Amino acid sequence: MKNLTDSFVYLGHWPSAGSFGFNTDILATNPINLSVVFGVLIFFGKGVLNDLLDNRKQRILNTIRNSEELREGAIQQLENARARLRKVEMEADQFRVNGYSEIEREKLNLINSTYRTLQQLENYKNETIHFEQQRAINQVRQRVFQQALQGALGTLNSCLSNELHLRTINANIGMFGTMKEITD
């Protein structure tokens, strides 16, 4: 403590006249030295410090500005991606609806086509049955006619004698002659 008070006492006893020398009292010279150093630093370092702080401030502002631009770009890309997603979802829904509609339409077309084909086959079947029936009927008619003709010829041949046969032929020729005269 005595050294502390002695330093303040020495401050009061400074020589007033011009000798230059080193003061070895640390406590007395330290605040003066520090104030001189701070004064020089502030005077000369003020511009450098201001430049450093301004540069740092500009870099921070540029970084913030770039970050904002990147953020806006990312937001815009996100909105574009969302819009494309909505568009693709709408197209997918439309394809799905159109696909189901197309499937239903094809199904109905197939059913209608199959129905028409079945109708045609039914018509062909009915025509074939009718044709076969007509053919069978015609065959039966021909057979009945042939049998009736053979029976009639057999009866005529057994009942007719040559004389009766000649008279029938002459009567028929006479009728044809009369018919020819009437038509002429």
Automatic annotation (TrEMBL):
Q: Report TM segments.
A: 32-49
Q: Which organism is it from?
A: Cleome pallida
Name the family the entry cites: Belongs to the ATPase B chain family.
**Chain coiled-coil ranges:** 64-98
InterPro entries per the record?
A: ATP_synth_b/b'su_bac/chlpt
Name of the protein in its database record:
ATP synthase subunit b, chloroplastic
Keyword Thylakoid recorded: yes
Question: Its gene?
Answer: atpF
Keyword Thylakoid in the entry? The reply is yes
Q: How does it assemble?
A: F-type ATPases have 2 components, F(1) - the catalytic core - and F(0) - the membrane proton channel. F(1) has five subunits: alpha(3), beta(3), gamma(1), delta(1), epsilon(1). F(0) has four main subunits: a(1), b(1), b'(1) and c(10-14). The alpha and beta chains form an alternating ring which encloses part of the gamma chain. F(1) is attached to F(0) by a central stalk formed by the gamma and epsilon chains, while a peripheral stalk is formed by the delta, b and b' chains.
Give the bilayer topology.
Single-pass membrane protein
The Gene Ontology CC terms held by the record are: chloroplast thylakoid membrane; proton-transporting ATP synthase complex
Q: List other remarks.
A: In plastids the F-type ATPase is also known as CF(1)CF(0).
Instruction: Supply one GO molecular-function term.
Output: proton-transporting ATP synthase activity, rotational mechanism
Principal location: membrane
- The region annotated as signal peptide is none
Task: Name where it's found.
Answer: Membrane; Plastid, Chloroplast thylakoid membrane
The entry's function note states:
Component of the F(0) channel, it forms part of the peripheral stalk, linking F(1) to F(0).
**Source superkingdom:** Eukaryota
* Key words of the record: ATP synthesis, CF(0), Chloroplast, Coiled coil, Hydrogen ion transport, Ion transport, Membrane, Plastid, Thylakoid, Transmembrane, Transmembrane helix, Transport
